[in-house]
Amino acid sequence: MCRKRVLVALVISLLLVGIGFSFKPLIESWSMPANAGEHLIRFDIGELKEKRFVIIDSGFDGYWGHSYLILKDGGEVRVFLLLTRENSYLMPSKHHLWSASGYCQKLQIKDQVISCEDEDIYDWQKEGWKWNLEGENLSSQFSSLEVVDFVNEGRFIAIGKGTD
Question: Using an 8 Å Cβ cutoff, are 101 and 142 in contact?
Answer without folding.
Answer: yes
